[in-house]
Design goal:
By secondary structure, this protein is of the alpha+beta class. The protein has 20 helices and 26 strands. It is globular and about 80 Å long.
């Protein structure tokens, strides 16, 4: 289940990762602040065999690092040779087998994209493809819905600027059927997204783009993708423990995988069977060979995988929302932000995550240095590793950015940034910005509010960690996108459009903010001629489908339905998905009754089933309720009241008891309020405050009273 939740991009996973990342950012910020104040950390340590090993041994033995890996493998190269190559921890908790950097195989997830990009650059060198070509030239049987005059080019695929609607892997793309074979072409044909933004206009981390690039490699070369990679990259470099097929010695030598909590994840197969964007298997030793060749202008001994010019092209950033925050090169992405310094354009990197593995590769071409870290526990170990390595050996890339004196905009001028922003890749990640005095305040459901202080045109410093948030504006000065350091540092968030409104939702309507914000963010059609129907009753099927779709979740493809009355129903696939996620319960013979109006307490219980794994029920035991709530729904209603996941219809009496109107039927405006709260309420902060409060001191979240 965890691996499906990961690939489904649920808000829960995104929140957990962002909170962990913020913790690392705060730790890093404190370290750099202390170094600056004391004058320490400025003199670099010379990177050599001795210092590299000392650094690695110290890092992996540290109390900060230990919780974040079961087994790890790392290689450091400099000046054309490996200067450190070590394994730490175990490849399998049960067997206690130690990690061996020469033979322990890891899934390196999205680091695969850099290798796929190298393959494309090889074919560009040979004249078999061109950067400016429409990718459809190589797959003419595909039809793409593209309303713009600009085609999606090979260059767009390489730089994650396609403009595609998000197409991350489906829940069922990780499975246990090792006999199942799905080709790249068949998968692409079944899942090809439309173009929804002008190609080249914005950066969105794009798994599907890299899959398409792999298909182009396959078509232009005339051989299967995995064969091409083996013949043209792995064999020339002597990467004898690398490939895209989980079979033979790669399967035998694969480390056991663990989730972020350290729980074993059963070994799984992928769909498509060969996954150019994330399916590569390899060892640290093999990636070390690749890094040596790349940093040597593409040559390794008598073998060459790239021309010098191609390597040069892959080291240049092709877009940036601000010079301190570059996006991507051909095949690489910006490194992690370092407080006060931003993301150095002198470093190119690539990270990767699967439910049970994480990896990080970074290269510093002008230092002829490369590092690759991979580990069999999904998580943020790399976020700790990178800044410590840079500060130790190359602190010039961590030096505070030199910004010219800048006169901050007035409150009136800052108002153009006000509004709600939704992440292009993870639409359920929403930030709200508003002007307060001479600063902006940004808030979201993960971290809560913090100040942004302007330091340059469209560039702000976050008060929490001294990291940068930047904005992209059009030629008229209108704000289009935001890039911030926590929720999704690998992409842009799009500013919501001006909501057109509805014929039956006046500005003074009690739920106007919730309804119009959701319209602004695209959850409702932005058509002023339409009615919303605020008091229309919501059915059980509608409720489930709306919440899942709003969190980027798709319907299940299984034909074995959990309820006997779903066949042929338009919401059947979503109800089945909700069953698989544990949101609803069923036996296979019972009925779901999808067209029955859902009560508020039923709706609360469905959400509670998803959130209870994150928030223990003890936090909410002091919540007082008035009115009638059935006993089976009380824990769920207490949670909804405590976390503020409701609208202004919930009021509190003089004794502090909340009337959730549990048995009342849920209507459209109340459903809008629930989604709005899920997107914007800082529930983690609320839960943390409850955990610190004295027994009996609970104070519910009170919203303006509904009319």
């Amino acid at each position: 289940m965890r691996r499906f939740l990961y690939f489904a991009r649920t808000a829960l996973w995104a929140k957990s990762f962002a909170v962990a990342l913020l913790t690392v950012c705060l730790m890093t910020s404190t370290v750099y602040a202390a170094a600056t104040e004391t004058g320490g950390g400025e003199k670099p340590v010379e990177l050599n065999e001795k210092s590299a090993v000392e650094f690695l041994d110290g890092f992996f033995a540290s109390e900060a690092a230990k919780p974040h890996y079961v087994g790890a493998s790392v290689v450091v190269v400099k000046d054309g040779k490996v200067i450190a190559q070590k394994g730490y921890g175990v490849a399998d908790k049960e067997t206690k087998e130690a990690v061996d950097p020469t033979s322990t195989v890891f899934r390196i997830a999205s680091v695969s994209k850099s290798f796929t990009a190298v393959a494309a650059m090889q074919l560009i060198e040979q004249g078999k493809i061109s950067l400016k070509d429409d990718f459809l030239k190589y797959v003419p049987d595909l039809k793409v819905d593209n309303p713009f005059n600009t085609p999606v080019t090979i260059e767009h695929l390489l730089t994650h600027t396609t403009g595609f609607e998000i197409r991350d892997p489906n829940q069922e793309d990780l499975h246990l059927d090792f006999d199942k074979v799905v080709s790249i072409q068949d998968y692409v044909r079944a899942n090809l997204p439309p173009v929804v933004r002008k190609p080249g206009s914005s950066y969105m981390y794009d798994n599907f783009a890299s899959m398409l690039l792999g298909l182009v490699v396959e078509k232009a070369s005339g051989v299967p993708f995995e064969t091409y990679m083996d013949q043209n990259i792995f064999k020339p470099l002597g990467m004898n423990n690398s490939g895209f097929k989980l079979e033979g010695k790669l399967k035998e030598q694969l480390a056991a995988g663990y989730d972020a909590a350290g729980q074993r994840v059963e070994t799984y197969a992928l769909t498509p069977t060969i996954m150019p964007q994330g399916g590569m298997l390899t060892t640290a030793e093999d990636v070390g060979k690749f890094m040596v060749a790349f940093l040597n202008g593409g040559a390794a001994g008598s073998s060459r995988i790239l021309a010098n010019n191609s390597v040069d092209q892959m080291e240049v950033y092709r877009s940036a929302i601000h010079p301190l925050l570059p996006d991507t090169t051909y095949g690489f992405e910006a490194p992690f932000q370092i407080p006060g310094a931003g993301s150095s354009s002198k470093v190119i990197s690539k990270g990767g995550d699967l439910p049970d593995f994480s990896s990080y590769l970074f290269l510093i071409p002008e230092q002829n240095t490369g590092v690759f870290l991979t580990y069999n526990q999904q998580g943020i170990l790399r976020n700790l590793f990178y800044p410590q390595f840079i500060q130790t050996f190359f602190p010039q890339y961590a030096a505070p950015a030199k910004l010219a004196d800048y006169k901050a905009s007035s409150s009136d001028e800052l108002e153009k940034f006000n509004g709600y922003y939704a992440d292009l890749r993870l639409q359920s990640i929403v930030s709200s910005l508003k002007t307060e005095d001479a600063d902006l305040t940004i808030t979201d459901a993960v971290i809560g509010p913090r100040k942004l202080h302007q330091v340059d045109a469209n560039l702000f410093v976050d008060e929490l960690t001294n990291q940068f948030t930047a904005f992209k504006v059009d030629e008229n000065g209108s704000v289009l996108y935001m890039k911030e350091p926590y929720l999704n540092p690998l992409g842009y968030a799009s500013k919501g459009v001006k909501p057109a409104g509805f014929t039956d939702v006046p500005k003074e309507h009690a739920y106007a903010e919730q309804i119009l914000t959701l319209q602004s963010l695209g959850y409702y059609a932005n058509d002023a001629s339409k009615a919303f129907g605020p008091e229309r009753q919501v059915t059980r099927g509608e409720y489930v489908q709306f919440l899942l779709e709003s969190n980027n979740l798709k319907g299940s493809k299984t034909t074995e339905l959990a309820f006997s009355d779903l066949a042929g129903h338009p919401s059947a696939a979503f109800i089945q998905a909700a069953y698989e996620l544990g949101m609803v319960k069923g036996s296979g013979t019972g009925k779901f009754v999808p067209d029955r109006a859902i009560t508020r307490q039923e709706a609360a219980v469905m959400l509670w089933r998803l959130l209870s794994a994150q928030y223990p029920q003890e936090l909410f035991k002091d919540v007082k309720l008035e009115g009638k709530t059935d006993a089976w729904a009380v824990p769920a209603v207490q949670m909804m009241v405590a976390l503020g996941i409701h609208g202004p219809e919930v009021q509190v009496n003089a004794k502090g008891a909340a009337n959730y109107q549990s048995r009342k039927v849920l209507n459209q405006q109340e459903l809008a309020a629930i989604l709005f709260a899920l997107l914007t309420q800082p529930t983690d902060q609320i839960a943390a405050a409850l955990s610190q409060s004295a027994p009996g001191s609970f104070s519910p979240v009170i919203l303006p009273k509904a009319s």
